[in-house]
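Support request, please re-run this one:
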Amino acid sequence: MAFANPSILPSVVAVQCDKCLTQEQYNQVISQLQDLVTQNTALIAKVKQLEEIQAATPNLKLDPITIVVDESGRVFITDKVNGKLQIATLSYDVSMKLDTTILQPKQKEYGFALKYKAAVIENYEKDSKGELKSYTSGALVIEPFYYHSYSLNLVMGPRLYGPAVGIDLTQHFGALIGIGFEYSATQTFFFGGAFDF
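Re-run finished. Output below.
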């Protein structure tokens, strides 16, 4: 005999038999049935949540990726990026390692490139007595040709002009050495430093 609702049972059961439930047994059966219904309700809710998750479109939001290129052309990029993955009602923090490849055009090792530089040069020349004297002056330098970090230059200053060989020490500064000719036809020797502009 099954009872759907304990409230419809009489308070005293007059029937006596070997196969009948006692009130205590009946209460235990009802409690177990209620637990089973509660578990099934939770299971149904989980199944619904799984169905929602399967039907949902994952949404991945990544933190910005910063790429830095310095003056020397070197490229720096973080190798790890963080973000958030959202699937229906579920949310996860994610962290990913980036496998990056940076492609840069290979710079020519030699060629013609008209560059202008400002230079400070130290000039050495022999005076009429044969003594070596020196003076410092500024100059404009034109670089028409380079090979790796070396360059051929034409130096023009307020008192002299002449060819020079230069070497780049940094991206914007280099040293040069050359032979100069003063506008008065006196030959000099000079060296100095030149800045790109």
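The CA atoms of residues 177 and 191 lie 4 Å apart. Residues 110-196 form one domain.
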